[in-house]
Design a protein that fits this description.
Strand content of chain B: 15-25%
Structural class of chain A: alpha+beta
CATH topology of chain B: UDP-N-acetylmuramoyl-L-alanine:D-glutamate ligase
Helix content of chain B: 40-55%
Shape of chain B: globular
Distance between the termini of chain B: 22 Å
Number of domains of chain B: 1
CATH architecture of chain B: 3-Layer(aba) Sandwich
Largest interface: A-B, 46 and 54 residues
Distance between the termini of chain A: 38 Å
Strand content of chain A: 15-25%
Order of helices and strands of chain B: EEEEHEHEHEHEHHEEEHHHH
Number of strands of chain A: 8
CATH class of chain B: Alpha Beta
Oligomer: heterodimer
CATH superfamily of chain B: Ribokinase
CATH class of the largest domain in chain A: Alpha Beta
Structural class of chain B: alpha/beta
Radius of gyration of chain B: 17 Å
């Protein structure tokens, strides 16, 4: 097994710690949320235990999201990002409590339709046809854009907020969408 | 003049400025036709519908194309900082804009140069920036939904996405969240909280609640909060005192929703079409 392969397997087997206050984790700081979403998708696809969090006050540059990662895998991760032309603005150790993204989902069953809310974003779909019938909430300008792309599409072939969105509202919509898919697949 | 600032989900739209006219199911601004799905066009559509009933001038739209990258919002911010000090605007509404504290503060400085100072309403992304800047008390009215109220109540959250779990996003917590938002100076002078029950509140707490007619499906329909902000903006523009306007607007919005016989797959344009009838009924016109 190659060194990189060993590193990758190690990352795959590593679970996130209960708290992201852990000092064995680092932060990737990016210019904008679009880069954060792309990097998260890329690193998760490689099986690396990353998590999107709010930046600590000590981080003065970048956007409203950072990615936490296992510090031991820093070189492996940076190499992946460099190859994808996604180099972060900063890579720093976690030394302060971080803001946790909202983790609560609110589910409302209308009978024929199901609504899932994550933070300030809601998505509603028909349980039988899996068609997305409404997107509501949010306050960032990609919300009306994502709604226009998604409403009327099936859960199975809709453009994804993580690909087309750019803001925290777009990211919250992705979480609500994933929960909707999970529930509708049971 | 009632001025409404926001975005449209078209990256190529550029700046669109002018009176917003509601024509059948479309909005027309400066000769450009805009779909009324949700977001700022829904707010404008509702405001224009109420202005039509009240026979007062339609809202003036400051719009920019923006799909979340922020360029359009920043173009608008720049334009506003240059133009607002010499503008004659009585009610100024900020809506779906990229939250940016630096630009928010520049815009607010420009507003302070206006004479007389307009009545300031903020919702959506600009309300997030107003809270993050610490300048929320400079605003006359915020129109959050239940999730956004929890964000205002959480003094540490920079965005609703980071609202802490112990501040529950449940509507029956609204009065508690209202008090917490005022305690930490994160609320406008008046709050109109949209939800299953709508609340109107000030620093003294919630003083009015509106819960009928109740249509469960409205929560799922994108744009129903935007229409409420549009209706209250038009009523204040008409000259109605803010607290009465907030209560009446909530009633009009709920009644329009009721007349639309909404289902979770109803689109907001079907509700806006009923706003004139609902407004006449609530206002006894």
């Amino acid at each position: 097994m190659s060194f990189l392969g060993w590193l990758k397997n190690k990352a795959q087997s590593q679970k996130l710690p209960d708290s992201d206050k852990a000092f064995d984790r680092g932060l990737l700081v990016f210019e904008n949320t679009t880069e954060v979403i792309r990097a998260e998708k890329l690193l998760k696809a490689q099986g690396i235990a990353v998590k999107v969090m709010g930046p600590p006050p000590s981080v003065q540059s970048g956007c409203d999201m950072v990615i936490t990662f296992p510090m031991t895998d820093a070189l492996f991760i940076l190499r992946i990002l460099e190859k994808a032309k996604l180099s972060p603005l900063q890579t720093v150790p976690v030394d302060n409590p971080l803001l946790e993204p909202v983790g609560l989902f609110h589910i409302k069953d209308f009978g024929e339709h199901l609504m899932v809310r994550a933070a300030n974003m809601k998505i509603t779909a028909c349980k039988k046809t899996r068609r997305i019938v409404n997107v509501s909430g949010g306050g960032c300008p990609d919300v009306p854009y994502l709604a226009a792309l998604m409403v009327g599409k099936s859960l199975d072939d809709t453009p994804l907020p993580r690909d087309k969105g750019h803001t925290l509202c777009g990211y919250a919509l992705q979480l609500a969408f994933e929960e909707m898919v999970r529930i509708c697949s049971q | 003049m009632l001025a409404i600032v926001g975005t449209v989900p078209n990256p190529d739209a550029g700046l669109i400025l002018g009176e917003a006219l509601f024509r059948q199911d479309r909005l027309v601004v400066d000769g450009k036709t805009l779909a009324v799905n949700r977001g700022t066009p829904a707010l404008l559509g509702a405001a224009a519908a109420v202005c039509g009933v009240l026979t007062i001038p339609p809202p003036y739209a400051y719009l920019a194309g923006d799909i979340g990258l922020g360029q359009g919002s920043r173009s608008l911010y720049k334009l506003l900082t240059e133009n607002l000090p010499s503008s004659k605007i009585s009610v100024l509404v900020f809506h779906y804009l990229q939250p940016d504290v630096d630009w928010h503060n520049k815009v607010l400085f420009s507003i302070e140069e206006m004479a007389p100072r307009p009545f300031l309403i903020a919702d959506a992304g600009f309300m997030y920036a107003a809270k993050m800047s610490g300048q929320a008390p400079s605003y006359d009215l915020f129109t959050p939904d239940a999730g956004e109220l929890a964000f205002l109540a959480d003094e540490k959250a920079p965005h609703p996405f980071y609202t802490r779990g112990f501040i529950l996003h449940e509507e029956n917590c609204a009065p508690k969240h209202i008090n917490r938002a005022y305690t930490h100076e994160n609320a406008a002078k008046t709050l109109l909280v949209k939800g299953k029950t709508d609340f109107v509140a000030d620093r003294g707490g919630s003083f009015a609640s509106i819960d009928s007619p109740n249509e469960e499906a409205l929560e799922a329909i994108g744009g129903t909060g935007d229409t409420l902000t549009g209706i209250v903006s038009a009523l204040i523009h008409w000259g109605m005192e803010v607290k009465e306007a907030a209560v009446k607007a909530a009633k009009i919005n709920r009644l329009a929703g009721h007349y639309a016989c909404p289902r979770p797959d109803t689109q907001v344009i079907e509700i806006i079409e009923h706003i004139p009838k609902a407004a006449k009924e609530v206002l006894n016109l």
